[in-house]
Every structure is written in C-alpha cells, then in structure tokens.
Input
Amino acid sequence: MKNERWIPVLATLLVLLLLYAFGVSQYRNFASTLVLGNLLTDNAFVIIAGVGMTLVILSGGIDLSVGSMIAFTGVLIALLVGQAGWHPLAAIGFALLLGTCIGAIMGYLIDAFELQPFIVTLALMFLLRGLAFLLSLESVPIDPPFVEQFANFRIPLPGRGWLTASALVMLVVLLAGMVLAHYTRFGTNVYAVGGDKSSAALLGVSVRGTLVGVYACSGFTSALAGVIYTLYTASGYPLATVGVELDVIAAVVIGGTLLTGGVGFIFGTLLGGLIQGVIQTLIAFDGSLNSWWTKIVIGLLLFIFIVLQRLLSRSFGSMLKAA
Amino acid sequence: MPPSALLSLRDIAISFGDFKALQAIQADFHAGEIHALLGENGAGKSTLIKVITGVYQPDEGQLFLDGQAYRAGGSAEAQALGISTVYQEVNLIPTLTVAQNLSLGRQPTRFGLVRWGAAQRQARALLARLELEIDVNRPLGSYSIAIQQLVAIARALALDAKVLILDEPTASLDGHEVEVLFGLLRQLRAQGMAIVFVTHFLDQVYALCDRITVLRNGRLVTSAPIAELPRLKLVEQMLGRQLAPSDSPTQDTARQSDKQQHPLLLEVDRLGRKRMLEPLSFSLRQGETLGLAGLLGSGRTETVKLLFGAERADSGQLRLAGAPCTIHNPRQAIRQGLGFCPEDRKREGLVLELSVRENLILALQAKRGWRKPIPEAQQQQLADEMIRALGIATPDAEKPVGQLSGGNQQKVILGRWLIAQPRLLILDEPTRGIDVGAHAEIVALIRRLCAEGMSLLVVSSELDEVVVFSDRIMVMRDRFKAAELTAPLHPNDIIKAIAS
Amino acid sequence: MTLPLSLSQAPQRRRGTGGGTHQQWLLPVTALALIFLVNALLSPSFFSLGVVEGHLYGSLVDILHRGAPLALLAIGMSIVIGTGGIDLSVGAIIAICGSLMAVLIQQDVSPLLTTLLTLGAGLLCGLWNGLLVAVLRIQPIVATLILMVAGRGIAQMITGGQIVTFHSEVFGQLGSGYLVMLPMRVILTALVLGLLIALVRRSALGLFIEAVGGNAEASRLAGIDSRGILIGAYLISGLCAAFAGMIIAADISGADANNAGLWMEMDAILAVVIGGASLAGGRFYLGLTLLGTLVIQSLTTSILVSGLPAQYNLLVKALVILVFLLIQSRPVKQRLLGWLQRRRPSPKS
Output
C-alpha cells in the first residue's frame, strides 16, 4: 500500500486486531459472537454520532454538542411519546428533523460570522443541555411496547450472538456515511474545504453550503444517536451522556482522521469506536482492573495517534509550506 | 478593424481611487507564441492579468478574443471563454488525490454518485496530454511542486483553453523541474495555444519566449519580438533608466579605499540552500555598507534570510570578527550582534496590535530576556528618542503600530534595531512602499549609521539609492551571485551585471 | 493615504496593566450591571451585606467566594489564549490535583509538602501540554484534549475510584475559613492572582506573550524564544488549575475525581471571551478577564438566588455566549463600524 493516507487507518486496524487477539488469548469466551454482537450494540450510538463527527472534522471543524444533543433528543422523545401522546415514530422523525436544523444553523453561524467551530458548538452544548433540563429535570421513562419491539428485533448470528436493531441502524448509517463521503460531490467538497478552504473556494466549491451541510449531518447523526441511546436505555434523562463528545472525537481521531481536516475515512471511525469498546470489554472481563484505565488507555492512544498524524502531516505540510 | 491576434488589449486603463494602476495598455497575444510579461514590483502585471480574466473591469479600453470583443465576469467565466490562469501558489488541495483535484466540481456522476473510475480515466487523459504519467490516486501533496504545478496547468487546460496565463510558475521550481515545465509549454505552443508567461528570471525569458511586453508603473514600456530586445536593453526598459552617457562616478573613491583598512566583521563562505540559493560567498568590513542588488526574485531576500537564520541554510560557514560562528535561528543571530529588518513589514516585522513603544523595544527586550524588563520610564525614553530621531509621525508612543502609515512603520522596525544596537544590520528593501520624503531620510540614516561604525547589508531595488549608500555592491541574478562591484559605483555597472 | 477606518477604530490602549480600552469595558460592565439590576428587582436582599460572627455575609460575598477557583482558571486561560492557544485540560488538572491533595492528606503528609506536591503536579500537567504545543507543534486544542480525556482517568486512579474525604485544620481554612471578615480563599486567590499579574506585567513576559500571539513570525525574527514563552504560558495555566483544584477539594473536604472541575475549562474560556479577548491570540486583558469571571459567577449565583433550578444556568450561559460571540465577530463589528461612520463623518486627520 503506497498511499500514505491509509497509514493511520491501517495502524488503527492493527491496534484493534492486536487488542482483540489479546482478549481471545486471555479469555475463552472473548471470541464468541455474543461478545462481538454486544460490542456493536453497546457502541452503536457512539459510532453513529462518530459518522457525523468525522465529516465535521474532515471539514476542519469540531462539534462539541454531541453529548447534549443525545440527552436533549432523549428527553424530547420521551416527553412527546409519554405526555403529548405522539406515535414514537413521529416523535423520532421530529427529533431527527430538529437535530438536523439545529446543526445547519450552527454551520451557518460558523461560516457567516467567521466564528470558531469549537466555541460555537460549545455554546450549543450548553444550550441543548439547558433545554433538556428545561423540558424535564428528571429521567423520563419511555413507552414500553415500542421499546420492546425495537429491542426484540434482532438477527441471530452464528453462535449465541445477535445483531440487534441498534447495531443494524449503526451499520446502515456507517454505510450511508461512507457513500456520502466517498461517492458524492458533497463528500469531495468536504475533503476539499478541510484540506484548504481558500483554494477550495477558488476552485468553485461553495464553502458555506458545504459547512452547513456538514454540521446538519452531524446534527442528524447526533440526534439519531440520541434516538438509539433512548431506546437502548428506555428513558430520556437530561444528565445522560455527559462528555460523550470526547469519546466520539477520540473514536474519530483513533480512527485515523486528521484533526486538522482533509484526511481520513468514515470506516476508521467504526474501528476507533470498536477499539474503545474492546478496551472496555477487556477491563470488564478482567474484573480486577478499574474503569479509569479505559480513560487512561484512550488518552494514551489519542496521544500516539496524534503524534503519528503530526509526523505524517509533515509530509503533506512540506508541500503546503513551499506553495 | 478587428485585431488579428488571438487575444488583444486596446487602450486598457484602470484606476483605484486616485491611483492609476494601468494606462493606455496595448498588447497582442498571438496563437502559437509564448509571450513574456515583465516588470518590477508594482508595474501592473497582476492587475493586467486580472483585467484579462475579468476579475477587474477596465475603466477604458476593449478586450478582444479571436477578433471578438469580450467581457468576462471573473476567472470562471474567463475559463469558459477559453482563458485559463495558473497562479504562482498552487491553488489546489494538497490532501486530495490528483484525480480528485482535476475533477473537483465537475465529477462525472450517475444517480448522484461520483463515478471515480471515469474521473480517473479523464484525469489520466488530461495528464497524458502533458506527457505526465503519475498515479492519479495519490494525494497531490505527495508530489513535487513541479508536478503540482503541471497538475494545476492540466486542470486549467481541461476546459479547452486557447489562452494560458502563467503567473510566475517557476518561482519555486529547481532546474530540472523548470525543464519539464518548459517542455510542456513548447508543446502547447506547437499546438497553437497563446501563452502569457510572467517571470522574474531573464534567462528563462530568453530560453523560452517569442515576444516580450514590459510594463512599468502601469504603463506599457515596450512590446517587441525577442530578437529586438537584447538583454541589456531589456533590463534598461524594466528599470526605467538608460545607461548614462558619461560614466561619472557617484562616489568619492577616497572614502572607499579608506575602508579597506577596516577589520573584517563578517565572512560568509558558500552559504546556500537547495531550491533557494546557490552557495555564495562574500565578506563585510566594519563600518562598511554592502549593497545587494538584482531584480525581484534573484535571491537577494533569500541571501539575507539564510544569513540571519530566519531560514535554515543547508550549506556554508560563517565567521564573525574572525571567529567561526553558527547561526541556526534568529536568536543566535541576534546574540552575535546581527539585526534584520524584513521586507514584508506586516507579516514578518511588526506586531500590529502592539503599540509603537512595544514594537520599538521588542528586540532589545528579547535580547535581555523576560526576567529583566526594561523599566517603564526607560522604555518611554527610548521610544520618544527614537520617534524624534527618526521622525516617526505618531501622536504618541502608545498608538497601535498597525495604524501608522507604511513609511512610519518602516521607521519603527528600523528604530527597533537601532535600540538593540547590532554590529551588523541587515535591511531588506528599506525604502519599499514609502513616500519620497521618507526615502531620503532613510538613505541619510543608512549613511549616518555607517559613519558611526555599524556594518550594513542592504537589499535594494533602487539603483540610484544603492549606489549612494553602498561601499560595495553584490549583484544577484537567478539565485546566484553575478558580480561584486567596487568603487567607483555606478548604476550602469549594475544593469550590465544583471543583464550579463 | 490614510484609511478612514484607522481613525475611529480601536482607540489607544491605556497605559499600565489594567488593559483594554473604554469601549472594551463597556460590554462586560453593561452585562454585569444588567445582571445586578435584574437581581435587585427580583430579590432586594441581593445587595444586603450582613456581619455574622465577624464574617461578612451576602450574595456579593458569595459571588466572590464561589468565583475564586474560576478566577484562577480564567487568568491562566487568558494567558494561554494570549499566545494564540487554548487549554482544555484545566478541568482535568483540577481533578488530578484535588485527588492528589486528598490522598496525601489522608496519608498524613505535612500540609506544606502536600501543597508543594499538588502544585508540582499542576506544573507537570502544564509542562506536558506545553511540550506538546511548543516542541511537537500540535495544535493547542488537540494537544490539551489528550490530558482532558486521560486526566480524569488519572485522577480516578489516584483516588482508587472512590470519593476521598479528609479532615484537615489547615486545608479546612482554605476551603471555608475567614480572615478579617473575608473568606480565606478569596484573600488567598487575590494574593496569588496579584503575584501572577505582577509576574506577567512587571516582567517582559506579558509583552512576549502578546507578541507571540499577535505575530509569531515577527516575534521569532525579533529574537523572542517563542518555544519557551509557550511552555511558560501552559505552566502558568497548570499552576492556576492546581491551586483551583486545591480550593475545590478543600471546600468539600474531599476529592471527587469524576465531577471536580467538570466543565470549568469551558467557563474559563467564556470568561476570557466575555472579557473581549480574541481566541486568535494577541492582546490579553487580565482585568477584563476577572470582570468576565464576575459576569459568569454572578449569573450562576443569581439563578441560585432566584430559586430557579441550577440547571437552567446552562441555558442562560449559552445565550450569553452566543450574544457575545456574535457582537464580537468581525462581520458584525465591520457592519456596526460602517454604520457608525455613515452616521458620524470621520474627523480630518
């Protein structure tokens, strides 16, 4: 493989395989499809949000509002279904639309007012969390029949494992994200804007349209992650998923996407999300290790990957400097 | 009567406010010709290109393409008409692949999905036209600047261009890469394209071009076939002065010979860096001013930046006052007693938000370190002294330096280094972009500093000035040292050295 | 040729250390006045000060009391932002230092050594960030994200995953003691900030930070050691966070690795933004940053006083940030400026 853009994602794959092989060598049950199915299910919402986050980071931005969006969507759906008597699907549709629109507005603000994505989405993070509290200060349970239908819909895997509805939705979103990023003009425009904004504009790319689209996508996937998370926990809780944006960003970066924008793959985010899942599973299997090791190991991986990216981007950077 | 040339300009004039950027420009660009567009900084080359591509609309005059009057609304429309432009800095996306760059915005699609296979075939076909065989699936940034430049040209040619405008395409290329590019341009010429070629390298003009148009101060100086413009005459035209009839020396030789007794301060041996500067050697005595002359892009700025450690040299040795020394970064240079006023004041010289006072004391403070702040009162005194001594026009020392005029900003940078009291002061185009009065003041200042025993290395495009303040002059051409002139100094000798 | 813009734009900065022009003070002062006004209307007791057992009591004292850690963070953040960077890890550093302090006190380490070790840990964190930014040249937002993620894990490791409580006379004073009618932590914070401001503004450090943040290339060519300056800025930020962490841990006589200092990095950034500094670096205003801290803390306290759920705080804060961001954005400023100039023909130069 002579293309240097693949190096980070290959490194990620290698890390994932090594971790998995380590698990298999240590624990008899680790290789079972049950563990695999759970891995996909438990991390579905992080990876779904990661698809949108990957697009945002590819465009050279960042979205800190993910965790709050998940909580807000959860509370909103729970209230619409439980108190306003909406059909769950209608509530879900409305929440997705709302998330997309909020994202689009963020994209517009970022471009039109020349604001840093980091600080705008930080404001959105507070805003959505505040709105979630405004809707309800307590956890709101959600209508059981639909949740059960959702939970019961699953495809058996060979062995004892299941491919749950959450995992299926995640795989569909992942596939859609890959098509969007790699097989549409919009996707190429995202890469172009992230690679060099002013050149992209000169080459006829609509920077504003691209950014609005990118943040709308992230709004949509965050809201969808919220839907999945809500169905998974069968409740909407305004204090849910605090700090999940960091897990999502970590998944994207460990997945080989350059935080400076322009380089990376949606598929890498799946790997990044799974690495976090495998680490958690390993720690759970071990029993004697504590949960904080997850954070420390993820921090360490972040460090390694960021330094790796830094070294790689020097080969791109030498060109940028000379131009 | 419609002109016969492929692209013709008739009586083009454009002004910005009171500033007449172009006046009465006539030019004909013929099919199957490479046409050099030359001129020093501010001559109006880039404005003219922007008029041709429709970025600017001329106030007067007409543009003809294929005998038809045309008016383009911007580079995209110009491209649709068949006029493509490639700028000096490659305006492509380094992180995208070559094929993605070539197809951006016009990818072949089916049901809204991009057909990358087709896009790659198209990209290969485009590159094949330039006899360029590279892997189109690799990121553009992984290729050399020359290849990237060629890819940019390929993109420009994708829409059946009739006219190709190249704005300094060779500025960042090495010798071999230039050859590759020239091969392509000759081939395009043979295919009947009209090529407009902007460059600062005279050798390249004579190696490649068929016709030359020279601009100066927004006016057309000459437009002639290459055979009618020998080198010497071309340089005269560009600089706007003829060889004076009598070779009267402008300097007293007595002063010069006197300085031969001064001890050597700086000896530079084969200082250079790949793609930037061919290794060159020179020396400088105490209390001596060495002028550095040459056309724009000839390697003058590169020389002084390498000397000061602003760019890392990859070859060369330095000796200061007889002792060997290494300079890898500006801090080391400053510790050795060097000072440097860069040409690009806003980007490399000033911190625009900070006040005149803070900018003035910056170098001295950096030399002392952060632990030993210059007392407030002393700062005030130094700043006021410098404002008075250099005649910096500012109501007081606390004004943000970004709000001063160009000449006053230049004086602030000069003042910064005078406060730091270097042994050797390097000035890069100290009189660029400032008004005539300030010019004279700065020339006088250089002479005074020199008389006080400071050594100076001064880059200047102003021939009349450089002979006045220099004791010796080093002439640069095409990134190497072309000549070293000693007293009696005369602008004629510089022109001859540049054209040699 | 003088540009008309330069005449009315950005009047000169006043000399000295306070920082900022009259215009820059206008917005945060107005915001603070507005918050106080609303409070005065809602609950007249807001401004009442009482003395109980020789201690000053009242909402205003409470704002200072609770705002002390944030003020420390904001000053450190302001300096880092001045260099054109950002420090996302200060919340995590609070957790690390608080946890370390709690564990050390539990182990009966002397208060002096505990203090030194805790502050040292903060410096170490700052050094890590500084090395990543200055030597490896990683973007600050990315570099400090690493410690932001890993830091809480480290803090949990130190406490063994539990909330560690302790009893200490000395540190109890730091958390809730009083000295001459005022809370001890307010006095200590003022002392530390005073020293810090003196360090930055009485040495050439402040000038160098502003120069590096304003124009890194020009600073390099003027001979400033930008690498050292950057590391220094992150060191200061780490030290401030460590001290804030000590106060927070002392306050509750315990360390909560999960929640101590959670989102405080965001509040600190907001305080700097409300203080009018550009996130792009350059001029930083310590006085204005403290004012920004007051605005944020007053908002928080007023919501508490008003009886609304504390969680609404987030909503109000978000709206305040958005308003400040939009008002200070370049396009809006330009449009405002253009409008002002049409209204008032510029004076002759």
